[in-house]
Amino acid sequence: MWLRVLLPTCDATFRSRDDQSNSTEAKTPRDSLVATWLIFRYPSVPDGVTLRSGFVEAMPRVVPRLGKDVNFEAFSSAFAERQVVFVRSAERQARKPSARRRRIGLSLLRQLYSAYPAVLRRAFHLESSGSLPASEAPKALDRLLGSTRTPPGSWYASFVLQRSRKALSEFLTQTMGPAGAPKFLVERPPRNGGSAAIKLPKHSNAAWVFFGRNPGSRILRGRPEHTDAIQHSGTWHVQLKGEKVWTLKPTDELRRKVPSLKRAGRVRVRCMEGDVLCINTRLWWHSTHIPARCKLSLSVARDMYLDGTRPGACDMTNVDGHYALKPIQKGAVIFTEDTAPQLELPRSSASNCELRESQRGSLVVVAKRVIKKGEWFSLSDSDAETARAEEPRGAKRKR
Fold first, then answer.
1. What are the distances in angstroms from CA 113 to CA 101, 120, 122, 143, 234?
2. What's the pLDDT at 57?
3. Which residues does 135 contact at the CB level (< 8 Å), separation at least 6?
4. Residues 6+ apart with CB under 8 A from 321
5. At 351, is the secondary structure helix, strand, or coil?
6. Is pLDDT above 70 for 97?
7. Extents of the domains making up the chain
8. pLDDT at position 359, please?
9. Closest listed residue to residue 104, CA positions, set 182, 170, 174
10. Longest dimension (CA), the chain
11. Which segments within 96-216 are labelled E, that is strand?
């Protein structure tokens, strides 16, 4: 469960979407302690990589590329090496799209929203407002899916299907078929002699849905380059309609684990209808954009657990997060009310931060314990409730 904590950043510094610096390090009089996953601005053409249909020219050296006949054994071997695999669509060469593919579009999402409005509203996010007026952002979901009229111009949004098995099952069946996942992840390969049975991956009880359009002549970027704070083996992303382009770069942790990626820069992967990108989003920096003149880009993603571990109940968020750039000592002030406007922190029973009152009487967020580099900040439920309770009656909360 997540709470929007209306505190502002720190002696340590917080880099926001509006920051125009090209640096990946926050600059303050003292070393920065805090980062968000909105800390990168990247050039429009990364590292001189040239795009070709379905993949980038340099991609095979960085991102393993498998054909339509791939099986789970071949996939898992390639994925274990690089933590990313691109699988070309089996339907790409078909003259006519399948009946299921023809049904996929905004009308399907509108039906889903009509049947399960609360499910979609709970974790909706506007990846990029594009040509939508900023004032309409809070009502964007109703504008996009609550009407049969598609808003003009460019826009890019997402939501998480979770805490409703019926909604999740209906959507996955209509888009992915009864298995609810790519074929090579659900079909068990034949056993050879006395070989042990291969464990197929388990999947989370949630699906991320990304949709947008970009009729303009320039690309439409989604969230800036980031990693995801989640413990999984990886995530598969299927491009259901249109196109989406990924920009990938290995994290330092991945470079240490995979020496062959030590000098790898950014690469771009163009996903077209039916293509599958499997990626460990915790170990790869990633961002996406919808190419120009794209009538509709629609994709679905699910977390996978390759060791056969059955994931617990899902309660995922669809907001930006904040993490430590370096170790933080217990008691250190991380955020203050004066320097971090509109800060969002999650609630957790195992939180690493707490609210305190400074000598000046303002609220500050401090480290409850030693916080490791790369650890995401969270606030306890009781602290959040205390902060609300201590507000004067009738006081207006900053938004």
1. 19, 6, 12, 11, 27
2. 38
3. none
4. 36, 37, 229, 344, 346, 376, 377
5. coil
6. no
7. 2-38+320-389, 48-305
8. 84
9. 174
10. 74
11. 124-128, 155-162, 202-203, 206-214
| 71-99: average pLDDT | 80
- DSSP letters, 141-160, are HHHHHSSSSPPSS-EEEEEE
pLDDT value of residue 61: 79
> What tokens were used for 202?
């388990």
CA dist 352 and 367 (Å) reads: 6
Give the pLDDT band of residue 221 (cuts 50, 70, 90): very high
CATH architecture of 48-305: Sandwich (2.60)
pTM confidence score:
0.68
**How many C-beta atoms lie closer than 10 Å to residue 237's C-beta?**
24
Q: Which residue has the tokens 């068990």?
A: 188
On whether the CB atoms of residues 222 and 246 are closer than 8 A, the answer is no
Q: Quick one: average pLDDT of 203-226?
A: 93
For residues 160 and 318, the answer to whether their CB atoms sit within 8 Å is yes
Q: Are 373 and 327 in contact (CB under 8 A)?
A: yes
3-state DSSP assignment of residue 305: strand
The Cβ of residue 333 has, within 10 Å, a number of other Cβ atoms equal to 16
CB atoms within 10 A of CB 188: 12
Options 2.170.270, 3.30.300, 3.40.630, 3.30.1490; CATH for 2-38+320-389 is 2.170.270
Residues constituting the chain: 399
Which of 3-12, 194-203, 326-335, 378-387 holds the top average pLDDT?
326-335
pLDDT digits (tens, 9 = 90+) for 251-269: 999 999 999 999 899 999 9
Quick one: tokens of 8?
């502002």
